[in-house]
Structure formats: C-alpha cells, structure tokens
Amino acid sequence: MAEKRGNVWVFIEQEAGKIADVSLELICKGREIADRLDVKTEAVILGNNLEGSIETLFHHGADVVYQVEDKALEPFTVLPYAEAIVSLLKEHKPNIFMVGATLKGRELAPRIASTMLAGLTADCTDLQIDNFVDKLTKTDHKDKLMQIRPAFGGNIIATIVTTWEDPQMVTVREGVMKITSPNKSRKGKVVKVKPEISASSKIVKVIERITQEKSIDLKKSQIIIAGGYGVGSKENFKIIYDLANTLNADVGASRAAVDAGWINHDHQVGQTGVTVRPKLYIACGISGSVQHRAGMDESSKIIAINTDPDAPIFSVAHYGIVGDLNEVIPKMIKAFRAKV
Amino acid sequence: MKRQLIVFVKQVPDTKNISGEAMTPEGTVNRAALPAIFNPEDLNALELGLELKDRFGYSVIVATMGPPNAAEVLRAALYRGADEAILLTDKGFAGADTLATSYALSCCAKTVKNYDLILCGRQAIDGDTAQVGPQLAEKLEIPQVCYVEEVIELEKKKIKAKRSIEGGFEVLESQLPALLTVVECNEPRPKAAKRIMKYKKAKTASELKKFHGNADYTDAPMLTEEEAKLKEKNLWIHEWNAAKIGADLQRIGMKGSPTKVKKIQSVVLEATEVVNVEPTGSGINKLIHELIEDHTLG
After folding, report:
1. What digits encode the pLDDT tens for the residues A275-326?
2. Domains in chain A, ordered, with CATH?
3. Fewer CB atoms inside 10 Å of the end CB: C or N, chain B?
4. Nearest-CA neighbor of A155 among B162, B265, B118, B236?
5. Res. A155: pLDDT tops 90
6. Which residues from chain B sit within 8 angstroms of residue A279, using beta carbons?
7. Who among B18, B126, B262 is closest to A161 (CB)?
C-alpha cells in the first residue's frame, strides 16, 4: 500500500463546555471503526477557554484530541468553525470525518464538505466497513465506509459510498450509536491548535441568544408512554400522564400531538424529534407514520393501543391492543396497582 | 437597479402522504406512483421572499433544477407572486448528489449575477439532507444563515434574522449577499386567481416547441415571434442548460457526485409476531403480569 490510511475523526460539539451526547456516541463508534481499520480515533473540539471536558473523550476511546481555541469560536457560528476545521482536515488528511446530525452539525458539515469537495451523507443511522465495486468506473474500493441512512421519508434505506478522495464525511443521527462504558484509566494526547481565522469568516455576528434547558430528555428514559392524535385533546393528555406516573415512566408524543399544541416539542419522538430506545414504549392513539416509527422502533418492547386495527404502528408493536385508549389505560393502571 | 432575491425550490415526490395506491403488493413504496408536489419548506422560503417583496420592493426570481415538467412548480410560484422563473434542465444534471446540485445552482446564481439574498427551504422531503443550502452558500462564497424563522431587519448591506438553535433561538446579523435556509415558519399564501389566469400561459422554450408539435426554431420562425410575445407579457420561463450557466461538465450530474448509492432496500411493513391483547380486564391483567414477570415493569 502506497500511503497509510488516514485516521477516523470525530467533531466534538460543545455548548458552554458541555460535550453533546452525540459526540460521545460517535467517539465510541469511531473507536470501533478505527480498530477495524487499524488506525487512530481523533477528536476535534473548538471553542474558547475549553477546560475540563477533554478527559472524557479519552475515556470513551479517543487517542488524540485537537483542541482548537480562539475567541472567534465562541459562541458557535458556522464560518469560523468551517475555516478552522477545513485547515485541519487538509493538514491531517483523515480517512473518515463524522459529525453529529444536530442543528449545528447539519449546517457545519455541508459547508466543510463543499470546500473539501468531499462526499457527505446526512443523518446516517448505521456505519459499517466493507468493500465496494463501482460498476460505472469498474474500480474496486477496499474497506470503504458504508453510510446507511433512511431516505424517501423513511420508506427506503440507502447504503451510500464515497468514492472520491478522503475524507468520507457523514452526519450521524443522535441517539442511534451506543455509548459504551468509559474506561477511566484510558489516556490520550491533547494537541492545542491556534487557528487562523480570516476576516471574511467573521461577517456573521450573534446579536441575541435565548435558550432554555429542555424540559425533558427522553433519550435517557427507560419507560415511555407516548400519546398521539388519538388522545383527542390537551386535557385528555392527563390520562397519558396518569399511566406514566403509575409506571414510573416519562411522557412522549407524536408530531401530530405536538403540532396540535397538546404538549411541547421536547416530548416529540420521531424523525424531527428524539430517537429513543427504552425498554418499554407504549404508543397510545398513535397511528405510526414512518417518521414516528423511525424514532422508536428499536425499543425493547412496544405496546400499541389504537382503535384502528390497520394502523401501521401495529407493524412494529410486540403487543397490540385494538381498543379505545380511554378504556384501556384505566384498566392498565388498575391491573398494575393490583399486582404490586 | 431593483434589488433582487432568488428562491431555489424543488419538485419532490409526496413522501409524507403515501396512499395505498403507491404501495406495492410486497409492502414497499412505488416511488413512481407518488404525486409530485412543491417541496413544503421551499413554499415557506418562497413566502418569506414574497414578504420581502411586499416590505422592501424586492424582485423575486424563482429557480429550480429538474426535468422539463418541473416547470410546474415554477408556475405555482408565479401564481403566488414570483416575478421571474428559471428552469435548469439538462440531461447532464441527472444523478447529481448534493455537491453536484449545489455546484449547478451556484452557476445559475452567478448567471443571474445581481442578488442580495438566496432563499431555500431547509430541506426537501425526498432526501431530508438539508445539505444543498449550506453547500450552495459555500460555492458562492457568501455567508449562510440556517433555520431562519423571521427576517427582522434588512438594510442595504446587511440583514438581521431570527433563527432556531438547539433549545431556543438566536438573532444573527450578516452581511449581504447571504443565503438563508427557511423552516416551517409562515403560512404560504394561496395562489392568486388573477395570477393563475395570467401565468397559466407562461411557458419554457421546450413547452412552446411541444405546443407546436415539437417544431424546431429553425424551420418554424413563428416560434421566435411567439417567444418575443411571451417575453413582452412576462410569460417566458427561462430554460437554461449546463452550457448557458457555464457549468463545468465534470462537476455536474453523476460525474460531479462523490457519493454513490450502493444499495437501496425498501422498508417492508411486516405484521409478524405481534401478540394481540384483548382490550378486556383479563386480557390487560395478563399483559401487565407478563411485563412484571420479565422485569420490564415494577
């Protein structure tokens, strides 16, 4: 082999020094891929005065962390981030570059890919290494990244391959890669970088910024009781909360229920909400669009309650109850109270 | 000179409302059977553009890349209030991924030349990638403001816009020209009856030729005349190919696309293994008992 293969790179997203969960998920996945390719896992984190949060990246599998600091990198704006990352990619030539498919990641990665003339696949839900034969050009590509993603509103699953020069770039959906348990004794190397950021990257200014902590993070929930349009009204969501309280569970919702204004968006499960995989998911009055199913179909156990026996939600359910949730849920509460 | 903005739109198959007719017997989606619609967030982008026309007197140019029948979405935009329409169509554009698409669109914008703003929907419902907006901004070397909900101020050389961020919102100020990607943030205006009456006659060159039995300009001089008439009435939809926008043929279509599709699997709805629980007291008791037994509950 003429040239040594590049490493696996992961963009580490941080807000006020706190690393996003998806970045740790990608470090873990990156470690697995790097082991398969016999290369290193390297992380790149940007900001200003970043301290304290770096160690956890080593614990989860990073070998090297590029710590890029400049006051133009805080708060986040796309242009200086893209410029700093592009110059590192050109210098270090990684084989793969992974970015979380968050709001930030989804505006940053394409900007970078366009400059690098790199292939980029959005919202991957799985990544594998395999060989690829390009039938058009009749070329063999060894050990390429298989970039697997749903498309067409979730009706198809496509496997995409980048055949041009590295890096092979992907954004990866939040919550789909698993975080393996950290090894606290694992160490790595920090490389501090002082980036050069041109004036033309500083032409967008943040004038005002208002954020609120999420009212709930369903990604960590063990049991989720989710309500859909079939719940009927904001008031009637009380019955969903009653079941949740009884079972010590959290409340989720379909987009239809959120759009109707019955519950806030932090509770939304599905393609435009969160992806969850609890040990139990009870879908109440949710028909089960592909977008919703994409966010919950990996739950260990799924119970669907719906009056329509043909509702698509039953296709992913382990237990189906064809009936009115207003009658079924009180019976569930009663049954549970009687057993424990 | 009148200030101009360009709205890039896309005609997409309606992936959100898949009816029984579009399903194959195997339970997969027959993509060809889906109706073609105006990409929903592109309608929001168009509406924002038309609001800027109302507020600041902008001239709104709408453009799309697609097959000849994508002229349909351009007419839909003219019915709503767009001033001018451009169809980018060329066999060479086929098979483009987001990089090749954004390159072709950038050539189109450069051909238009004078623009303060480029607007596009955040993403299209057939691919949901949200990549073309930022890639187009990069190709034009202009700043991008993604996930825009509202334009707060627009001056001669800068714009202030509100956009959503994780857990809240942000107000950004950017120099012009800039590219905005727009989320579902407004109620797109309906097609105006008067405009429909007028613009249903709007045509591309291909449509004009087809209208005359696929005649050719060289042996049907009346085509030139009709074209001039349509132009005079502002009913001419520009039809531009790769040569017209000065696109490098190596960078468009399949050739200009670094990503290749290795495999497509249809998601099959399979109704197997579902345990049917009776909605009765005893049926539900048994279910809850089972879940407690296997430690899912309790």
Report:
1. 898 999 999 999 999 889 988 988 989 999 999 999 999 989 999 999 999 9
2. 8-202 (3.40.50.620), 218-339 (3.40.50.1220)
3. N
4. B265
5. no
6. 296
7. B262
